[in-house]
Structure formats: C-alpha cells, structure tokens
Design a protein that fits this description.
alpha/beta, four-stranded parallel β-sheet, binds 6-O-phosphono-beta-D-fructofuranose, 6-phosphofructokinase activity, Rossmann fold, seven-stranded mixed β-sheet, 2 domains
Length: 319
C-alpha cells in the first residue's frame, strides 16, 4: 500500500484533529502518502481530496473540531454513490481508508470494505456509545466541559436555594450523564438505560430538603427527554423553585484533554499499522488501557455496555 486516506464523519468530537495528525504522521513515518478527504463521505463522492504533509497537520493536536470538516451524506448510502466514491479513490490511487466517527460512519466503512476497499475505523464521538471500547475520542473532553459548567451552576443553585435540571448530550447512551453526575455529586441522574419514576426522584429531593439541603442538581441525558418536561413534572409534584440548563453543543467543542490527545495519537497510529498489515473492516478500541481492534460487523450487532457499578456507586453517594 502506497497511499491511504483519512476522513471524519458524523458529529465532530474533540480529539479528531489529534487523530488526523497521528494518521498522517504515522503514515508518512512508515513511507506512505496520506490524503485528507474533506466533508466526510461527501468529499469522497465529490473528490474533495488533498494530499497532507507533515506540516499540514502541525498546530492542530490541541484544537477541537475537525480540520477535515464533517457531514452526514445520504448519497453515500446508495449503491451509485458508493460506486462514484470508489472511482474517486482509484483516481487518486488511494488503497486504504481510515474513518474517524461514530457507529453510523462505520457502516459506510464496512460497505467500502465489502466492495474490496480496506477501511479501518476510529471511534470518535462524545457520547461514548460504541460497543467494545472503554472510551471514544471526545468523551473525556466533553465530560470535563460538563463538569466545569455544573460547578458554576452549583454556585448559583446554592445562592438561590434552587433545584437545577441540567440536560447533557447522549441519545441512546447515558455515559455523559452518569459520569458527570457522579463527578459532580448530582442528587439525581436520569439515564435512558435506567428509567426511574419521578415520584421516587421527588421523594429523594424532599428527603434532602428535610435534611437541610439547600439545592440539588439533577443531570438528565437527552435520551430521557427534555429537561423542560422534567422540570414541569417536578413542579407539578412538588413546590420547588426549579431552573433548567440545556448545555447543548458547547459540549462538542473545545481543546481536547490530555487523555483524548493521547488516545487519539495511539488510535491513529494503530489504524495505520493495521491498514499496512493488510487488515480491514476493523475498529480500533481501547480496553483495559490496551489498544486493540475489533471486527466492525461483529461489534455493530452489540450495544455499548452500561456500567452498573458506576450507577450503583452514584446512587450510594447521593443518599
Ligand atoms: O452523537 C453526538 C451528538 O452530539 C449527540 O449527543 C447529539 O444528540 C447529536 O450528536 C446532535 O447532533 P447534531 O449536531 O446533528 O444536532
């Protein structure tokens, strides 16, 4: 293999740039040319492809977002779209591809692999919702952004003796809510994986108030529903002064933490190593601090594991 490509797809995540840098530099270090494909799979179809040199990925290890841009591409989901993409890859002489993104993005990679074009995935999403990896790129940074925000909310919550409902990202996976709730000492964490009825939640809030608690923080994963609806229900069940904060896309931005930069560097380098060894259709993962690889088709049949121990611990500490 003499030329490989790299693209980012789906929602951006802090650490994607560090991963692009690692793919480019590991590739060049091993003697191959590396091409950046812009705007995700859309760039594959339109041929928005450019050779990247060592200097092109300088000064990006610390930057959030993705210098390659990202997009969701309906055309690539069609056979015709994929055929054009393969033609473009051939035109540039690219023989292997690294896709940085979430599980939706990996499906595209699988399709390319099935068409005889080797693809390796790197899990990049703040949600941490990919099976068979302990962490995805961007999760740690997003978590720290959330914690910073909730620490600030706590100051005003204490001053006004209010109950705050904070909505964080995470559609099918409540990891951002679970980890930030535990790290921030939230009184209640509402997760898509663990439905708890609001009467029980209100009872717990009341117990806290009776004990002299002046405020509470309730962290809600967006997959549970709107924080505004939760606030309305709490108000209807108990006369509490509540406020809502929806953190939104602020969670997706910002300079990656050291953890995400190191993870991105390790995963990027491993992806290149695998491609050059003739591997395909695999996703790089971190398990027990070891960088490993899993068959994408196999892992797409699984669900990201829910950490029951962490949930129990959060409950134990928020009595
Ligand atoms: O998958 C990452 C994610 O940030 C989710 O947590 C969120 O639901 C979604 O993307 C938002 O997507 P968009 O930026 O397209 O609104």
């Amino acid at each position: 293999m003499k030329k490989i490509g790299v693209l980012t797809s789906g929602g951006d995540a802090p650490g994607m740039n560090a991963a692009i840098r690692a793919v480019v530099r590991s590739g060049i270090y091993r003697g191959v040319e590396v091409y950046g494909i812009y705007h995700g799979y859309k760039g594959l179809i339109t041929g928005n492809i450019k050779k990247l040199d060592v200097a092109d990925v300088g000064d990006i290890v610390q930057r959030g977002g993705t210098i390659l841009y990202t997009a969701r591409c309906e055309e690539f989901k069609t056979e015709e779209g994929r055929a054009i993409a393969i033609q473009q890859l051939k035109k540039f002489g690219i023989e292997g591809l690294v896709v940085i993104g979430g599980d939706g993005s990996f499906m595209g990679g699988v399709k390319l692999t099935q068409l005889g074009f080797p693809t390796i995935g790197i899990p990049g999403t703040i949600d941490n919702d990919i099976p068979e990896t302990d962490f995805t790129l961007g999760f740690d940074t997003a978590l720290n952004t959330i914690i910073d925000a909730i620490d600030k909310i706590r100051d005003t919550a204490t001053s006004h003796e209010r109950q705050f409902i904070v909505e964080v990202m995470g559609r099918g996976c409540g990891d951002l809510a679970l980890w930030s709730g535990l790290a921030d000492g939230a009184e209640t964490i509402m997760l898509p994986e663990k439905k708890e009825d609001l009467d029980t939640i209100v009872e717990r809030l009341n117990r806290g108030i009776e004990r002299g608690k002046k405020h509470s923080i309730i962290v809600v994963a967006e997959g549970v529903g709107s924080a505004y609806d939760v606030a309305k229900e709490i108000k209807s069940k108990a006369n509490m002064d509540t406020r809502v904060t929806v953190l939104g896309h602020v969670q997706r931005g910002g300079s990656p933490t050291a953890f995400d930069r190191v993870l991105a560097s390790r995963m990027g380098s491993k992806a290149v190593e695998l491609l050059l060894n003739g591997d395909k259709g695999k996703m790089i993962a971190i398990q027990n601090n070891k960088i490993v690889a899993h068959d994408i088709l196999d892992l797409l049949t699984k669900k990201h594991g829910f950490d029951e121990n962490l949930y129990t611990l959060a409950k134990e500490l928020s009595i």
